[in-house]
Structures are given as C-alpha cells and as structure tokens.
C-alpha cells in the first residue's frame, strides 16, 4: 500500500482524466486565475510543507511567501538570483533550487510554449502568441520563432529534409551527461513514454550551469546537428548543449528535435496570431503562407505590411489541394452525381494508389516534394534526372506510382522505395550490387506554374490546356479525364476504375481554382467502401505524448476458424474519445495477463468494430494480413469474443 497520497490543485481538474494526466491520486479544482487573497487563503488552509509557484509572477510570489516563513520556490528556477552574492550556493540535497534560469530568448520561447500548452482556449492561445510575436523586435528572431512554433527545428527547403533526431540519439546524449545513470534514465523513460518530458526530468536531477542562448544561437546549434559528421558527433553536440540549458529549455529543444511541440498549436491558429500581432487580415496571412510555404517569411511580410508581395516560387513547395471525401455507403441508393456539390459536366479522374508528389523545375534545377512538403530527391533520383530533360519551367502536381510490365503495381511496391539508405553510393543497389529499384511513373494531373506564371487563380480547364501543352515523356504522363453528365456515366466510370485496380474516382469541377492546403468542395473523392471487421483486443499499449498515462494503442485479432486461434490483424489508436480511452484503460488494467514494459497482454474480452481503407497480404502479423489506415469505429459492448469476424472472412476482402 502507498504510504502517501498525492493531490494536485488546479483549474484543469475539471478536465476528464486529469488525475491520469498529472499522475496523482486525486485532483482538486482550484482555478489558476484565483486572486491573491484566494491563493493565500488556500495556503493557510492546506498548510503545505513545500510550495512551487508555476506561472504569472511566479518568482515574486514565491519570494513573498518565503518572507512569510514558507518554503516556496518558483518551479522554473531563478530564485537564487535574489540571494546576496557573498552567500554560498545551495548544497546538494538542500531545499534550494538546483538550477538558475538565465534570462534569454530561449527561456522566453519556452515560457510561451508552456502558456500555450496549458490552455485549451483558442482565444487565449492567440493572445499569448500574438503578444510574444509582436514583442520580437529583430526580424531574424521573428522568423525563427514562427518556424519553431510549427514544431520544426529547421525550415524545409529544396533538397533539405526536416531535422528529426531519434530517441536513441537523445537517450545516448542524456546518459552521457555527468551523474546520469542509465538505470535512472530507463526508469524515468518508462514512466513518461515521452522523450521531451524524460529529458526535463533527467536534467532536473543533475547540477547544470545554464547559459543564455538567443534564437540565432539556437538556429546555429540546429544547423550544426544537421551538419554533424556521423551519429557520435551528433550525440556529443546534443549532450554539450543540454548541459548548458535549464531543464525546461532542454525539454523545448527535444520537442523541436522530435518535430512536435505538443502544445495544441495548429497552423491556422498561428496564422491568426500573426494577423493579430501585426494588424493584418487573417485571409491575407493564410494566402501569403500558402504561396511562400514559409511561416517565418510570412510573419515578416505581415509585420512589414507586404503580404501582397508573396508569390508562388519554383523550388519552394506549397501544400497540395485536397479532395473532400464522399464515400459510397451501401445503404445510400441515391445516384452519385446527386451528392456532388457542383453541377455537370463533371471531370472524372482515376484515383491512383500511390504517393502524392509535387515536381518543380527551374532551368537545370529540379526538386520533388511529398504531400507533407518533405523532399523526395534521395528516394527517387532517376525521376529528377528524367525531369531535367523536359522542356520549360513548371510546377506539377501529381501522383507517383509503381509501374512495371505494362501494369500499375500496388502502393506496397512503391513504399519499398521510401526511406532507403545509400549503399556504396547508389540508392537502389543491394549488397550484391544488383539493381533492385521499382520502376516509376509520375502521373501529372495539375500544373501550378508555367514559365514563371502563377496559375493558381486560373480555372482547371485552362490549367489543363497548359498541362497538355507540355511535351511530357515517360516516365511522365498526363492523367486521363472522363467527362460525365449523368449518373449512368459516373457509375460506369466508377466500375471501370475499380476493375482497373484503382481506388475509385476523383470528381472535379472544371471551373475550380487551385487552393493549396484546402479541402474544398470542388474536388470530391468517390471511393468504394470496405466493410468493417469486429475484432477482439489482445494487447493494450501505453500511448505517447498527452496519452502517455493511458492505454490508448490497441492490437486486435480475428479468429482462425481452422484451429480456433486468435490471429493479429492490425493495431489502431484513433477513433475514441478521451473518456472512452480512460474507461478502457481501467478495463484493460483489470484484465492484464502479463506486462512487457509498456504493453499489457490482456484477456480477449473486449470487441472493437474496426474500419479501414484496404486489406492486404502481409507478413507483419501472424494472420498474414494487414489493414491499411485502421481506425476504431465503435466499442461493441454488445458483442463477445465468440461474435468476432473470422480470418477466412477477412481474406475474402483481399
């Protein structure tokens, strides 16, 4: 039994699952907006042995409480700066704080991230962000901070991938610091399941000498990591920097290195904050960001009142225009065209099962980008070589597919090309030196720029004429278009598309403009709908980030009718509410058969209805099958393990 119980007083106690999130026995609602007399009254009644102040005038309030004889300290550190210089520094093990908080730009940025992460109010987030951005007087500071608020350590440019440092590198950097024991790191890591929080807690337990770090200095550090001569150099650079940071600042850097601040900050909210900070129109900010592809540059244009100067530029990726889903439900007997939000004629294109890609060409310079703006130059070098032979300058939007022996291959064949490492200088040579590349086709279905002319505001029918004027040669080709005016023509085209091995159709309005990053009503996805499967959960796993304290990742199985065994068919973690996940966490903890670190092998007694996009043969699971994009549609408390689907019925959907 526990000898102690821990309670937390916070306004966030009203949020479901807060006691799990804060890892305490109980949470008691107390608004962090309580006034000064209210806080003093709370302390008088609770009579705590030690007090940590969190935000607002944290250091000042802690100093006031110490003046009243209470053991109070600012949780962010910096209190010892108030002591007279002749006084000795706090001894190890004393009640004094371990770290001073140097007043620097990185400290301010970390404080901003904390404030934004602590509130769920969009208005409050916008206020915090706009006030911070407005206070950055140096252009370079504004540019860097805006980029980092998107969670990226280095802005993406042609030929440069985002800086993503793996958890193994972070672990080795932390354990290389003085007085950090491997077993203590492992203990903290298992309890947190989050690299950034683990870094902060590890750094809190050792004595550091924080040094001020401005934003250009942090940018130089990130660039140094990108230029590191191998993993050992990268680890040493990271360890040296962490040793000079306050633990909270170290947490911020690790978040940026892993590519996610996890403070509930979406790109649209940041655009609104930039507009508020510099009294600009939000729509103009979004349009400028759409064209520049760089939120830092957009922030500078907003401050300088030059948003109208933003233009589409070759070799700078822009977000792809997205098609809105319109699934074809079996229970809906209406003709497909009646559900489309625009009028005939419709342009129908086959929906390929490939990788969305954007091809830029400017003279001899060529770049290829993925849907998330990641450079694909290293994965598909032969495509760039072929693109340099094409005439003219352009930006094409299209789909990369695997194609061999006169037929289109599946996404799984193309996926083999992603993330491959160089072998003896050749990306597609095996250890035996044999060529193992998968042949490619780039299917172009739109053109965004031609000879420097921005085509985004032109209707699709005009962009199509421009696209067809290009002399594309294999491995490039222009997508075929099938005009349709009525339900019968759409149905016929839909069936042909499925028979040809495509996922369905994309219906487009020929009068539509190209709107990067938007999922409007002028492009519609028409897809066949796969049935759902009823599966039983066999493993419940600890989640990540904000879900690190609950069991939110579920591995599920179907039954093999030939022998009665349960066979794993996939894993899902999306589709449930926080309340449902908390209920399932309690359920699975009560029905755990054995535990392997973060995994709970559980009794097969809870059925989930799983939706998915496709089912394929795969050696990943013992069922021999894998689901593409599985998601939880419902918890089926009305069904038992005897009611789950069979492996044989799942195979019939291949």
How are the elements arranged and paired?
Blueprint: E1 7-10, H1 18-21, E2 26-29, H2 36-46, E3 51-53, H3 58-67, E4 72-74, H4 105-118, H5 122-135, H6 139-148, H7 167-175, H8 182-192, H9 195-204, H10 215-226, H11 231-242, H12 247-257, H13 267-277, H14 282-292, H15 295-303, E5 322-325, E6 346-351, E7 355-362, E8 365-370, H16 381-387, E9 394-404, E10 407-408, H17 411-415, E11 440-450, E12 453-454, H18 460-468, E13 476-478, E14 482-484, H19 487-499, E15 504-508, E16 519-527, E17 533-542, E18 551-559, E19 566-572, H20 578-590, E20 592-596, E21 599-602, E22 607-611, E23 614-617, E24 625-628, E25 631-635, H21 647-651
Parallel strand pairs: 1-2, 3-4, 5-16, 11-13
Antiparallel strand pairs: 6-14, 6-15, 7-8, 7-9, 9-10, 9-11, 11-12, 15-16, 17-18, 17-21, 17-22, 18-19, 20-21, 22-25, 23-24
Helix pairs in contact: 4-5, 5-13, 6-15, 7-9, 7-11, 8-9, 9-12, 10-11, 13-14, 13-15, 14-15
């Amino acid at each position: 039994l526990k000898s102690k119980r821990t309670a937390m007083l916070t306004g966030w106690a009203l949020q479901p699952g807060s006691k799990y999130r804060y890892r305490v026995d109980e949470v008691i609602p107390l608004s962090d907006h309580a006034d000064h007399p209210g806080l003093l009254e709370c302390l008088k009644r609770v009579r705590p042995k030690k007090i940590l102040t969190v935000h607002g005038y944290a250091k000042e309030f802690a100093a006031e409480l110490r003046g009243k004889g209470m053991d109070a300290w600012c949780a962010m550190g910096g209190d010892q700066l108030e002591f007279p210089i002749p006084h000795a520094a706090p001894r190890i093990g004393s009640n004094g704080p371990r770290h001073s908080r140097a007043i620097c730009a990185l400290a301010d940025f970390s404080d901003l991230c904390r404030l934004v992460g602590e509130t769920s109010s969009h208005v409050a987030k916008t206020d915090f962000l706009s006030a911070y951005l407005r206070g950055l007087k140096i252009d370079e500071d504004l540019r860097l901070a805006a980029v980092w608020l998107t969670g990226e350590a280095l802005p993406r440019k042609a030929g440069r991938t985002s800086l993503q440092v793996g958890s193994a590198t972070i672990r080795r950097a932390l354990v290389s610091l003085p007085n950090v024991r491997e077993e203590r790191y492992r203990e903290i890591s298992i309890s947190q399941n989050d690299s950034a929080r683990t870094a902060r807690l590890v750094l809190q337990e050792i004595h550091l000498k924080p040094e001020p770090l401005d934003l250009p200095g942090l940018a130089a550090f990130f660039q140094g990591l990108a230029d590191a001569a191998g993993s050992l150099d990268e680890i040493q650079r990271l360890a040296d920097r962490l040793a000079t940071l306050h633990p909270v600042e170290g947490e911020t850097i690790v978040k940026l290195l892993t590519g996610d601040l996890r403070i509930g900050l979406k790109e649209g909210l940041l655009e609104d904050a930039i507009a508020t900070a510099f009294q600009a129109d939000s729509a103009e900010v979004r349009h400028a960001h759409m064209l520049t592809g760089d939120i830092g540059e957009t922030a500078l244009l907003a401050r300088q009142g030059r948003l109208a100067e933003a233009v589409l530029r070759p070799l700078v990726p822009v977000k792809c225009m997205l098609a809105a889903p319109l699934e074809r439900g079996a229970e809906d007997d209406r003709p497909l065209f009646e559900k489309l939000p625009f009028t005939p004629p419709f342009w129908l294109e086959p929906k390929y099962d490939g990788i969305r890609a954007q091809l830029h060409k400017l003279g001899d310079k060529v770049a290829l980008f993925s849907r998330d703006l990641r450079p694909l130059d290293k994965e598909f070098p032969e495509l760039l070589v072929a693109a340099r032979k094409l005439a003219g300058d352009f930006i094409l939007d299209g789909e990369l597919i695997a194609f061999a022996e006169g037929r289109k291959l599946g996404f799984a064949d193309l996926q083999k090309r992603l993330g491959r490492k160089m072998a003896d200088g050749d990306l597609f040579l095996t250890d035996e030196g044999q060529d193992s590349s998968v042949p490619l086709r780039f299917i172009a279905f739109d053109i965004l720029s031609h000879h420097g002319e921005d085509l985004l505001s032109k209707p699709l029918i005009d962009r199509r004429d421009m696209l067809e004027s290009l002399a594309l040669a294999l491995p490039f080709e222009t997508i075929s278009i099938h005009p349709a005016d009525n339900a019968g023509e759409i149905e016929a085209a839909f069936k042909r598309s499925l028979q040809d091995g495509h996922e369905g159709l994309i219906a487009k309005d020929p009068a539509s403009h190209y709107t990067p990053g938007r999922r409007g009503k002028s492009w519609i996805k028409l897809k066949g709908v796969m049935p759902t499967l009823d599966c039983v959960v066999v493993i419940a796993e600890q989640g990540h980030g904000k879900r690190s304290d609950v069991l939110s990742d579920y591995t599920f199985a179907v039954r093999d009718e030939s022998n009665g065994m349960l066979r794993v068919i996939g894993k899902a973690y999306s589709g449930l509410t926080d309340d449902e996940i908390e209920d399932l966490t309690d359920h699975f903890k009560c029905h755990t058969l054995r535990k392997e670190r973060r995994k709970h092998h559980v009794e097969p007694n809870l059925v989930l209805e799983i939706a998915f996009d496709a089912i394929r043969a795969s050696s990943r699971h013992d069922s021999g099958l894998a689901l593409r994009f599985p998601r939880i549609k419902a918890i089926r408390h009305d069904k038992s393990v005897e009611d789950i689907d069979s492996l044989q019925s799942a195979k019939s959907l291949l």
